[in-house]
Here is the input.
Amino acid sequence: MKTRRFLAPVLALLLAALAFSIVPRAEEGFWPYNSVPRAAIKQKYRFEVTDSWLRHLQLSTIRFSGGTGSVVSPDGLVLTNHHIALGSLQQLSNTGGKDYVKDGFYAPTNADEWKVPNISLRILQSIEDVTAKVNAAVTPAMTPQQAQAARQKAQQEIANESNTATGLQSEIVTLYQGAIYNLYRYKVYNDVRLVFGVEYQTGFYGGDPDNYTFPRYALDLAMFRMYENGKPAQTPEYLRFSPNGSKEGDLVFTTGHPGTTQRLYTMADLKLLRDVQVPFNIANLEMQERAVLKWSALSAENARQSVQRLFGIQNQLKRVRGQLKGLQDTVWMAKKEQAETALRAGLAKDPAKQKELGDAWDMIEKSAQVAREIDAERNFIANAAGLSQSNLFTQARNLVRAVYAPPSEGEGRGGRGGRGGQAPAAGRGGGRGQAPAIDTRQEKMNLTESLTFMKAQLPATSPILKRILGDKTPEARAAELVDNTRIMDAEIRRLLQAGGKATIDASTDPMIVLARSLEADAQAISRRYQDEVTAVRAAAYPKVAQAMFAVYGPNSYPDGTGTLRLSYGTVKSYMENGKRIAPYTNFAGLFERSAQHNNEMPYTLAQRWADAKSNLVLTTAFDLVSTNDIVGGNSGSAVVNTKGEIVGLIFDGNIQSLPGYFYYDETVNRAVSVDSRAITEALRRVYHADALADEIAGKRRVTTH
Here is the structure.
């Protein structure tokens, strides 16, 4: 009887852990291609995942910077989201004399395809486990800081050796927060051309009110083409479009690049995010949004040039607010704490493993305390958040750092310390080379906004305020700095660079003086964060992952890392506020939604859609939802059926999916996709892009030059 009484609470804790940890349930998980849970998929869905099926998907998936695409023809055609292509459309608008963001773009022939500058697309060729090689560089006598440096050096050496031996771009991917290291090798395409992009109003239909919601009516669609040697790349591995689409209950897979998640995080780090870092990121993004809106309100041209930046800020802002809501969910946090307690209790049953791994949680707790302690200094001195919207200050800091030893961490809130809330200022230029022209009106507005933000974030007695503002108001200080600096002059920057440290030290330029005055402390703060937070976590989190392996076995998936993963799920409705949300919308719903809102923004129909209504099959599926586990970075991911055919194009998640950076709830988390049938219908009947519709249907395009 005593044994039963003892086992009961332990069993309850273990069940809680299994229900709320990174050990997968149902459709949860971002699975690396070399550890897909084939047995679980076969058992539940009677579908066998084969090597050839996986290889086909892998070689058909494109890695964009911050997103995903898919090869959809043997001639290098790439399918992705409009919001992934938005920057390219903006670039083309700036050089082509037409607003392609507003009106969309279509190249009817190869000769019309626009070469996008400074873009590379990558396809993963192979994965190799190099954990033993990386860990061999570490000795027991090393401190956490020395061990981290040794691992980083080993990773760089392995990647360099692979680059030389294979000619493929190679990188080390850290999984399970450092418990496993994989070597990924990519084929890179540097000649990438824009083929198609819908109007902004179509790609982002419903605007911010509909963002992260369902039902949706957005055709978030764009296409590029990869070239080699001046000709369309030959890509024998590509995804075909399903002629029939999907239906509710179908098993579907998502192949893409989910961004950084924190599902393995301990309670100490989750509380740090909840209490300190995520609220700061939200406030920072709100400041950036205010700055962009104020500038956009001054002219139509300002507004046009700010579309991409405003979209990025508002999208991230809504996402981070959703994350904070998840972190503030007391029920979920209690379950997470139960899971952590159960894991530690399970580990304690093995004295040897407890001795080896059991100190991880205390190490992380201590590092989180340091992060809290130096948060204000890190934000406003090391990362200069009060000056972050100034291009001129950024140039000044880069000039100063060119002659001083740069901090190891660098600017930004990277690493395991928290998600970055910092979108770069419009037209951000560096200290070296060509810098963009700077509008001093915008510079003053932006700098005033960020200095005002700093003043609101810090107590009135903070010495940081005195160092940066002096006795002036944010507006007066911004005017003083911008009006008196000369570093916007390219010749002045050249002289400062050429003169080295002596010239920087002697400079009386107010931006240089300010950057110089902060630099020593910025480096010291960054070094402390590196040594007492980043390096400590790098040593502790692999132990947490190894503890999970020891207690639950090797059946867990790693956090998202922005690298290729497979997720699986089904097309499925869900309940919201007591109402069933059907898994599909259709074309008729788009026109009904527009009419409900009197065709006013953000529900205004693009003119070509209004004109095409009578030609459309209004029962055609438009958008759909599925239980696939996704986060940011999956944008542009293909949703495929068991035949490997495209049935959807991921572009969003519902509002309930936003805490998915920390946990997954199959009952309500939904991935939102453009239905493949909507893509085909729109290409033919709205955009009259029959050549593209034919190409994704399997017909070879006639190449022209």
Remarks:
- The first strand starts at residue 61 and ends at 64.
- The mean pLDDT is 92.
